[in-house]
Amino acid sequence: MTEYYAPTYVLFGKGAQNEVGRVLKERGIKKVLIHFGGGSVVKSGLLGVVEASLEVHGIHFVELGGVQPNPRLSLIRKGISLARSENVDMVLSVGGGSALDSSKAISYGVCYDGDVWDVYGRHVAPKASLPVGCIITLAATGSEMSNSSVVTNDEVTPNEKVGCNSNLGRPAVAFMNPELTYTVSAYQTGCGSVDIMMHTLERFFHSGPAFEFTDQSCANVLKTVVKYTKVALENPCDYEARANIMWAGTVSHNGFNNVGYDSIGDWACHKMEHELSAFYDVSHGAGLAAIWGSWARYVASVDYHRFAYLGELVFGLNDDDCKVACERTIVAFEECFRSMGMPTSLKELGLSLSTDDIEALANAASRGGAIRLGNFKVLCEDDIYNIYKAANDR
Amino acid sequence: MTEYYAPTYVLFGKGAQNEVGRVLKERGIKKVLIHFGGGSVVKSGLLGVVEASLEVHGIHFVELGGVQPNPRLSLIRKGISLARSENVDMVLSVGGGSALDSSKAISYGVCYDGDVWDVYGRHVAPKASLPVGCIITLAATGSEMSNSSVVTNDEVTPNEKVGCNSNLGRPAVAFMNPELTYTVSAYQTGCGSVDIMMHTLERFFHSGPAFEFTDQSCANVLKTVVKYTKVALENPCDYEARANIMWAGTVSHNGFNNVGYDSIGDWACHKMEHELSAFYDVSHGAGLAAIWGSWARYVASVDYHRFAYLGELVFGLNDDDCKVACERTIVAFEECFRSMGMPTSLKELGLSLSTDDIEALANAASRGGAIRLGNFKVLCEDDIYNIYKAANDR
């Protein structure tokens, strides 16, 4: 049985950011914490547009900037204090997935009596949260409709990067203007597109039977991103390309591509990448691209046909020998990642790890051997080590 | 700019109906009005299952059956009285789209001081509603996540059939077990599949530019329904077929296939069909099938390429001459409707209308010439007459 619940009110298209004041007022919001990253949303003038829209509709606000990629627990604690002392009734993220995930963590923390890290590191399910809103400036994480957020605990060494999935984390409102992604760099465009593709690949490879409508919907996300990332890299201000990528990013992670599947998907690559990011602070999308091919070859024997079918759906590939078709599919995705400027090995990611390093990663990903990852193929610590090693040795 | 808002909590899969008590209790529901149609949900035992699930979780209920296809205002008034006197806090539909649309109308009426017909016939936007829940037994209207409901005023002659679109009408919860559609007759399966396809075709043909992600998503709905209706008609208990059709039906009408389009779509065929149903009480899906080809040929010159593209996406058709490709697309859809046992003319629908009859329909559809229909091509009363006439003369 699938639970599908994506209640976010979305405004999608040119000028969406101008509607923030009106939409929040209609929802009875009185005061928000605007949460953002570096200076880009200031320099671009977006922050000013949002502030003006709130002011016109009489909505008060306080602000907290400084969110970094792989958002940090220490800033989240500041946000919780500020949100409490200022008595805000919404956290409004302006920026990409990191600002939004940080906002989700603040919204849990405000409504939780204990330490907010409980919700992430100790997997205490949140019971309440402030509503979260977002103005999105990056097509990548799909956090604008998803139940997930990922936080890095920078108060421990090595850092811990852990996610929390809760329907309470689904934003109440999302303002999505594809034009706001025109200024995203080629590298971050590539990272974002890989992240979108991986949210879909993690779901496509699941335990249990296929479901054709959703298989085709997964293929639509993947084909859209493959086609339009090429266009966006050539012409960063192509509206059609940015719009297709942005909406594909939302659909890839709001649960739509789980419907009819018996499980939420594999997710081993995501968990293995979280350790790479926690240890080496790499970009999430790049880390995923560097691992995926090694994961795919390691698990392919579970169901060569599934890989072959994917290659047919997305790239029009086929071969009578399903092992050959499988390998061609994996190669096609790797070529696609490279064409987006993304790595397909740890070396290309800029890492050259020792056996000890790899053991440390595998130990962390498996929580010292206590947990297994994935469900397309269930991976123990040794399997995880082998996949990291394969990605390192390529 | 597109507004996308589909907040319904969906449980999809085998056994979904057994979860109704638990899910409603989690949402704080204390007492529901169970609203349903004829005896089929009684005979099948479904009503008993729902009652038992509510009882286990201590949720009280009262019941009102008797909903007919093209649900009637007179029964809705009874439902409003009962819901008020019994102080229920949710209307829970058990059945198909008619029971659900009737439930939506009751939920508006309970929260409205005036005559509930204001909301439909006089287009007074509802400001509040009781939450609505549904256990779906038919894949057709998509009402389980849609903002729309259609009511027939049986207190006037001829009857008036009018829809209301409001986000307040989107159900709070929907329980969707495809097995519950195994017993749907071949004729009603065909009607339902045409309705699903038409919800997508009405959107695909819209004013303004195309948006590839959504064009492809429309194609996915259409291809899924074309493929699996054939399977379901051959084997009514094929889970895969019923599940794919059911979910395609939800997606076709929850707004997903509007994202990135500048308008909500054409909808002229729906409005013309509402008059057929109001005057002659035909099944909605059959009425749509009987009109669509005549509409399509009448409006095709607006954009032959759009029709040609649709034929390529759904049926793999192509032809260098876009007019030829357009006609082939229309013929392919008509053949598809016929293969589902559906009519492609008014004669096949069982109607043989006089010029006066057709004038009366066109006059009603255009509200005496006061309104125009459609936006792919805007139709005045004469256009509407011509389309009805073409459908009658085939």
Structural write-up:
2 copies of one chain form a homodimer. With 394 residues, chain A is an alpha/beta fold. The first copy, chain A, has 15 helices and 8 strands. Chain A has helices spanning 20-26, 40-43, 46-56, 73-86, 97-110, 117-121, 186-204, 212-234, 239-251, 268-280, 284-299, 304-315, 322-339, 355-365, 381-393; strands at residues 2-12, 31-36, 60-64, 90-95, 132-136, 148-153, 160-165, 173-176. In chain A, the strands form 2 sheets. Chain A has a 6-stranded parallel sheet, with helices on both faces. In chain A, a hairpin with a 6-residue loop joins strand 6 (148-153) and strand 7 (160-165). At the A-B interface, strand 1, helix 8 and helix 9 of A face strand 1, helix 8 and helix 9 of B. Strand 1 of chain A pairs antiparallel with strand 1 (2-12) of chain B.
Brief summary of the model shown:
The structure is a homodimer of 394-residue chains. Helices cover 49% and strands 12% of the residues of chain A. The first copy, chain A, is of the alpha/beta class.
| Spatial order of the strands forming the largest sheet of chain A | 1-8-5-4-2-3
Secondary-structure class of chain A? alpha/beta
The average pLDDT score of chain A comes to 97
Number of strands of chain A: 8
How many domains is the backbone of chain A divided into?
A: 2
Q: Report, as a whole number of angstroms, the end-to-end distance of chain A.
A: 40 Å
Shape of chain A: globular
Rg from alpha-carbon coordinates of chain A: 20 Å
| Oligomer type | homodimer
Helix content of chain A: 40-55%
N to C succession of SSEs of chain A = EHEHHEHEHHEEEEHHHHHHHHH
